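Retro notes, item 3 of 5
We never archived the inputs for the adenosine monophosphate complex last cycle. Fixing that now. Sequence and ligand:
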Amino acid sequence: MAHDGYRIVLLGPPGAGKGTQAKLLAEKYGIKKISTGDILREAVRKGTPLGMKAKKYMDAGELVPDDIIVGLIEEQIEDAHSFILDGFPRTLVQAEALDRLLAERGKPLTHVIFVNVPDEEIVRRLTARRVCPKCGAVYNLIYNPPKNDEICDICGTPLVQRSDDREDVIRNRLKVYRESTAPLVDYYRKRGIFHEIDGVGKVEEVFARIESVLR
Ligand code: ADP
Ligand code: AMP
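Structure as it came back at the time:
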């Protein structure tokens, strides 16, 4: 089912399940998924100029500077008619830049979906997150374990823990979220396109809540 006019922001704390839900939405509705975290990790892995600039911030659980991220998003969105943004915007400067960019193209956001998950659940999810370094699949040792001990179901590669999923870095990411990203809830809440959903529950249950907002 291809949906032409969905321009969605998934907002929420780290570990809320944005990447998991963005992937499901992209697959089911045939919309382009733009995940700034994935793009940055790939750049770090390849050692590109972007990756070299971003690495120190990511390792510390800090935000990569706005000008770098906004430039990246401009390239990614180009003239796309529909997209799902996962992990962007994360600051007011980014949100305002996005509004300007989309206004210039006459294609404003259609949905901002805030996936809400309490802190203790976030820490539990993130410390148990494992990712496939080859194909990018995301698992959870508690909620969504691979079939064979820490091996990717899809490509058989040993899973790894993201370097920023250590408890001390997770705590800093939560602090950064509260200071810089949580204010976006107020920025968007006044608009008719804002929807808050409960991010606790099975992946399929959260997906159903998102779909009910899209309908
Ligand atoms: P985000 O992109 O918001 O940082 P992820 O989609 O990577 O979050 O999810 C964080 C971790 O929680 C992953 O290990 C993922 O498998 C797991 N997860 C995602 N959605 C749920 C859910 N509804 N219930 C439990 N665990 C989940
Ligand atoms: P994520 O995969 O969304 O958890 O992002 C991982 C890391 O990438 C973050 O902790 C930041 O260092 C960086 N990052 C991703 N998206 C952004 C963004 N929109 N603004 C600034 N930094 C970002």
